[in-house]
């Protein structure tokens, strides 16, 4: 069988135009591909890949060698090209069903949001055997400690707090005894506390309280792991170890359930406090901070990773441009849409940043900066905030 110049199968006896009649039909038939049917599905492939084969055959018919050797050489090369084209088309034939199968697959819907976790500060789970245990008069000198007391069911034992201790809501009626730098020592003494609670990050305040011979307990507060250690230590000093153990187990289970796999295009700049208007320097959570750990658990990357060596820092607008975050989260109370519109306008000088270009500035309440027993709620809020 011979492939004619018009690419149709024909016999060697078919009448060729005089200008293209082969000198040696046997030689011409050697390099011809097998008479595979050129159906509609393969025609375009063979036309594209086998064009060189037809050209060589034509060259053979137009310019045969004097002794036929060049004809055989050209026809042989034509056979190799034809075979290559055929194999290529075979691969294309196999790829078509696979592509069709992929096209028929349903689009993958985004995974549903996890269910909101329990707020153990507002809804503590107290072991019945420990409901009446613990000191009767407690003073808390840090918001995170006040929340710890609430989570262990001790909010009703508080007789003193700072002005920044506002959660759980039941503590707003507890007398204020000052804050970190302006603590009213006389008011603390007058309250006759059984236990005064301070954080490890307040060593000067601790020294003043101990100098008054007050019963002081210092709780760790500098890392994610310190949250669990503080719960354990407070449970011990207030005779509520079982309640503390239950709280730790519940928080660990919640954090494991809420944890998200790493995701692309989620480099987050977490700004502590409102983003300034006009655009100036801003304070951010850097690598190693508690908030950085929350970003990792939410499947995100801290945009300042590799750019800062401190857990907390003030950075410039130029550093924001260089980091080019995909999402910006600011902690602010309160926030509304009008604020966001003003924010995008104010930060227009760095509009090239992905977060501004795609309008992905998110706002979360400032209490997420507190490393306390609401870590599960914090993680949930961040997971929702970075959701596409």
Layout of secondary structure:
Blueprint: E1 2-3, E2 9-10, H1 25-30, H2 40-49, H3 51-62, H4 69-104, E3 138-140, H5 143-151, E4 158-160, H6 185-190, E5 195-199, H7 203-211, E6 216-219, H8 224-237, H9 241-258, E7 267-271, E8 282-285, H10 290-297, E9 301-302, E10 312-315, H11 317-323, E11 327-331, H12 337-346, H13 354-357, E12 361-364, H14 375-385
Parallel strand pairs: 3-4, 3-5, 5-6, 7-9, 7-11, 11-12
Antiparallel strand pairs: 1-2, 8-10
**Highest-level CATH class of the largest domain:** Alpha Beta
If you consult CATH, what is the topology of the largest domain? Rossmann fold
Q: Name the poorly predicted regions.
A: 1-108
CATH superfamily of the largest domain: Nitrogenase molybdenum iron protein domain
Query: What is the count of β-strands?
Result: 12
Mean pLDDT: 79
In the CATH hierarchy, the architecture of the largest domain is 3-Layer(aba) Sandwich
Q: Helicity level, as a percent range?
A: 40-55%
Please give the domain count. 3
> Strand-and-helix sequence, N→C?
EEHHHHEHEHEHEHHEEHEEHEHHEH
Widest sheet: strand ordering: 4-3-5-6
Helical stretch tally: 14
Describe the main β-sheet briefly. Answer: 4 strands, parallel
Determine the structural class based on helices, strands and strand pairing.
Answer: alpha/beta
Strand content: 5-15%
End-to-end Cα distance: 62 Å
Rg result: 38 Å
Overall outline = globular
């Amino acid at each position: 069988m011979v492939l004619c110049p018009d690419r149709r199968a024909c016999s060697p006896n078919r009448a060729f135009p005089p200008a293209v009649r082969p000198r040696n039909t046997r030689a011409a038939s050697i390099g011809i591909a097998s008479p595979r049917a050129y159906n509609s599905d393969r025609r375009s492939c063979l036309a594209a890949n086998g064009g060189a084969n037809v050209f060589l055959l034509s060259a053979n018919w137009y310019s045969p060698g004097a002794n036929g050797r060049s004809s055989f050489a050209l026809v042989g090369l034509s056979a190799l090209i034809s075979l290559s084209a055929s194999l290529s088309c075979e691969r294309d034939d196999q790829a078509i069903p696979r592509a069709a199968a992929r096209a028929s697959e349903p689009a993958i819907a985004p995974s549903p949001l996890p269910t909101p976790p329990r707020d153990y500060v507002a809804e503590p789970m107290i072991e019945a055997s420990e409901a009446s245990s613990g000191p009767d008069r407690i003073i808390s000198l840090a918001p995170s400690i006040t929340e710890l007391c609430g989570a262990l069911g001790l909010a009703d034992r508080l007789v003193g707090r700072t002005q920044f201790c506002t959660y759980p809501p039941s503590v707003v009626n507890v007398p204020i005894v000052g804050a970190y730098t302006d603590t009213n020592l006389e008011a603390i003494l007058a309250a006759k506390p059984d236990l005064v609670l301070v954080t490890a990050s307040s060593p000067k305040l601790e020294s003043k309280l101990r100098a008054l011979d007050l019963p002081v307990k210092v709780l760790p507060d500098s890392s994610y792991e310190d949250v669990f250690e503080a719960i354990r230590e407070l449970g011990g000093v207030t005779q509520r170890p079982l309640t503390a153990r239950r709280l730790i187990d519940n928080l660990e289970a919640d954090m494991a359930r809420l944890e998200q796999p790493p995701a692309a295009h989620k480099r987050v700049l977490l700004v502590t406090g409102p983003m300034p208007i006009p655009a100036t320097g801003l304070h951010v959570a850097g690598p190693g901070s508690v908030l950085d750990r929350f970003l990792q658990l939410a499947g995100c990357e801290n945009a300042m990773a590799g750019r800062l060596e401190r857990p907390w820092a003030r950075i410039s607008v130029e550093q924001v441009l260089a980091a080019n975050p995909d999402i910006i989260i600011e902690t602010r109370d309160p926030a509304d849409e009008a604020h966001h519109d003003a924010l995008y306008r104010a930060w227009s000088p760095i509009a090239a940043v992905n977060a501004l270009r795609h309008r992905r500035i998110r706002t979360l309440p400032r209490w997420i900066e507190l490393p306390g027993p609401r870590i599960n709620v914090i993680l949930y809020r961040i997971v929702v905030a970075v959701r596409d």
